[in-house]
Design a protein that fits this description.
This protein is an all-alpha fold. Helices cover 66% and strands 0% of the residues. The chain contains 3 helices and no strands. Helix 2 packs across helix 3.
Length: 85
């Protein structure tokens, strides 16, 4: 299943922005790693409906959740691919 096929094109720009934000948060060391996905979800819930246009509708909230999920999933893929077995 390709999660990106469910995300509207306008929402795709939020994924790298959230990824960069996560790296910045991680680099500060102020927040534990386990809370970063929750923070990204919150930021996505604020930004994505504004970017996708249409405001805060149920569809745009779902888009925000998918965008945050794709960001966290992408990070996990990158992290796991760097590990040596």
């Amino acid at each position: 299943m390709d999660i990106l096929s469910y995300i509207l094109e306008e929402g795709l720009i939020v994924i790298p922005a959230l990824y960069i934000l996560a790296e910045i948060i991680k680099g500060t060391g102020v927040v534990k790693n386990k809370w970063i996905p929750v923070i990204l979800l919150g930021v996505s819930l604020v930004l994505t409906p504004l970017i996708v246009t249409g405001g805060y509708t149920a569809d745009n909230i779902v888009q925000a959740i998918l965008v945050a999920g794709a960001t966290v999933f992408s990070n996990e893929l990158i992290t796991q691919s760097r590990k040596e077995e």
